[in-house]
Design brief:
- The complex is a heterodimer of chains A (101) and B (467).
- The C terminus of chain A is likely disordered.
- In chain A, α2 packs antiparallel against α4 and α3 runs antiparallel to α4.
- Helix content of chain A is 72%, strand content 0%.
- Chain A is mainly alpha-helical.
- Chain A has a domain of 60 residues.
- Chain B has 467 residues and is an alpha/beta fold.
- Chain B has three domains: 77 residues; 192 residues, no CATH class; 173 residues, TPP-binding domain (Rossmann fold, 3-Layer(aba) Sandwich).
- A six-stranded parallel sheet of chain B has the order 3-2-1-4-5-6.
- In chain B, α1 runs antiparallel to α2, α5 runs antiparallel to α8 and α6 runs antiparallel to α7.
- About 3% of the residues of chain B have low confidence.
- The chains are: A mainly alpha (101), B alpha/beta (467).
Chain lengths: 101, 467
């Protein structure tokens, strides 16, 4: 078995544990932004798409890569923007007086 | 120089992603965290573009621009009520991207550098899960959007054939690992992934969408991780693992909130058949409902010193979140205290109600989870149920034969008085009758929630005498 695989598995398992730890602290209040945010983050597959689209692997690969780049960019750009749009809306109660009835 | 920067940029990105998720533990710093995540993404993309392997840029540039335009436009203009649809759609994009990268990498390696069995395994996994996520999320989108019936679609032998297909794909993967050159088998496996995605979402009903959407989130993450294994790229493995755990944890939480096991949600086809002979079920059109007018409800609201609002999917459908907040403010102006009770599975995705109420400027310290607020109903003058059904159904506590028996529900029936806003007397998504609606202290006000709320506000503001 290659060291690469073993190393990859190490990282996968440890990241999973870290993810569990970090994500169990996210309150239900923010579960939708969490989904949108992780969605943006998993758009990191964009990195793989870039290689497929620009690696000069031949026409099929370039076309597939191009579609993948587009899809992954929609997710990253859209994901981060929409998460920000949502998070901007969460506000604490203002002091009485500065809210119009 | 740039060769050394790329792996380093991935490390920076990984750290940024973890920080972004960590910041989501409180709404105070979450926005900054999201910015950090976006920064990490930018660093990783720039780091990749510097790689010597990338020789042509025109398709990349077009893809980046096109994707940014579409993604940006969707993010800016999509209404908050459509958030579950947008999330489902983005899972399908994520799945498709992973699958296509997998196909491209497979073809490239087959005709070029060669394919060892480990890489083949990772690629197979990536393509299978990528396509499954793609078609499954499109199905979920179709169901949410109402393009496909939201009711569960079932047929004989459904689970058996799905499981058979899944194992068939697994067998193909094993064959491919032994002999990667079998292109036909590779594409057959991808096709099974596509088919399974459709078949797997088909039997799942609208009310179970929060679990499914979360699970597809997890699959999209796993597909991204598999891409990382295939390309030997650690930031992909890490980001995919984070996404995978997040989706998995959310779907577990959602299942728990319905007191159902994971397998039951996936294979149970909940709400398919209604057992009207089950104890406690009222026959269709049971005539005991206490149908009330807006005026009766307003009398109650005007006098209430404490009010708990329970929103459900009906609030999203009628886009009533702003009107709900307006009504709450009128009650507050009359001296009543208002709280919101949010059930984990209210709506069509985790946190759906919270986002809608936040959009309507409801401060988040007025939103309460079921554990925080369930004891308060007994001490509350009035409860206003806006388009929620199963999460306030007392059958979950009292009727062992009911399909939702054991699911944690709000103790709405313990409040002094309850007003239920509902479109019609049709049963909710789960297809169950609701005992709450026939209780003597429950007022049913039928009609579009937004319109009814608007009338209530006008009447409340006009009739100061009630306060």
């Amino acid at each position: 078995m290659s060291n690469e695989l073993l190393f990859g598995l190490y990282i996968f398992v440890l990241a999973g544990f870290l993810g569990h730890h970090v994500i169990s602290k996210v309150p239900p209040l923010l579960h939708t932004p969490l989904m949108a945010g992780t969605n943006a983050i998993s758009g990191i597959s964009l990195v793989g798409s870039l290689l497929a689209a620009g690696g000069g692997y031949g026409r099929t690969s370039t076309i597939l890569g191009f579609i993948a780049v587009t899809c992954a960019t929609i997710n990253t750009v859209g994901g981060f923007l929409i998460t920000d749009r949502m998070l901007r809306m969460f506000k604490k109660k203002k002091r009485p007086g500065d809210r119009k009835p | 120089m740039s060769e050394a920067f790329t792996p380093f940029s991935y490390l920076i990105a990984s750290v940024c992603f973890i920080l972004a998720l960590q910041a989501l533990s409180s709404p105070k710093h979450a926005r900054q965290g999201n910015l950090i995540g976006a920064f990490g993404m930018l660093v990783a993309v720039v780091g990749t573009l510097l790689l010597a392997e990338i020789i042509t840029f025109e398709w990349i540039a077009i893809g980046l621009i096109l994707g940014s335009l579409i993604g940006g436009a969707m993010a800016i203009w999509i209404p908050m009520t459509k958030m579950p649809e947008r999330i489902a759609l983005s899972h399908s994009f994520g799945g498709l991207a992973a699958a296509l990268v997998g196909v491209s990498e497979y073809l490239h390696r087959l005709h070029g550098p060669g394919l060892d069995s480990f890489t083949m395994g990772a690629l197979g996994f990536e393509v299978f899960f990528g396509f499954l996520t793609f078609s499954g999320s499109l199905m979920a989108f179709g169901k949410l959007q109402g393009l496909i019936t939201g009711a569960p679609v079932t047929y004989k032998g459904q689970n058996v054939s799905n499981i058979a297909l899944f194992f068939g794909a697994l067998v193909l993967l094993v064959v491919l690992v032994i002999s990667p050159g079998q292109t036909v088998l590779f594409f057959l496996m991808g096709a099974i992934g596509l088919m399974l995605g459709v078949l797997f979402v088909l039997p799942i009903g609208g009310a179970d969408m929060p679990v499914v959407v979360s699970l597809l989130n997890s699959y999209a993450g796993l597909a991204a991780s598999a891409t990382g294994f295939a390309l030997n790229n650690y930031v992909l493995i890490i980001a995919g693992a984070l996404d995978g755990t997040s989706g998995f944890l959310l779907s577990l939480k959602m299942s728990q909130a319905m007191n159902r096991s994971f397998t039951n949600v996936l294979f149970g086809a909940f709400g398919g058949k209604v057992d009207t002979t089950a104890p406690g079920a009222v026959g269709p059109g049971g005539a005991n409902y206490n149908i009330s007018s807006v005026e009766d409800a307003v009398d109650l609201l005007g006098a209430a010193q404490s009010l708990i609002i329970v929103p459900g999917y009906g609030m999203a459908v009628s886009q009533a979140q702003h009107t709900v907040r307006e009504l709450a403010q009128v009650v507050e102006a009359n001296g009543g205290a208002v709280k919101y009770a949010i059930h984990p599975v209210a709506g069509r995705m985790p946190g759906h109600m919270n986002v809608l109420l936040a959009e309507a400027d409801v401060p988040y310290d007025q939103l309460f989870d079921i554990d925080q607020i369930n004891d308060e109903f007994a001490r509350t003058d009035a409860v206003l149920v806006v388009g929620a059904n199963d999460v306030v159904n007392p059958a979950a506590k009292t009727t062992p034969g009911s399909p939702i028996y054991g699911m944690p529900v709000f103790n709405v029936d313990e409040a002094r008085a309850v007003i239920v806003l509902k479109r019609s007397m049709n049963p909710g998504f789960a297809g169950l009758e609701n005992d709450l609606f026939v209780r003597p202290n429950t007022m049913m006000v039928l009609g579009d929630a937004k319109k009814t709320l608007r009338e209530m506000i006008t009447t409340l503001k006009g009739g100061e005498g009630h306060g």
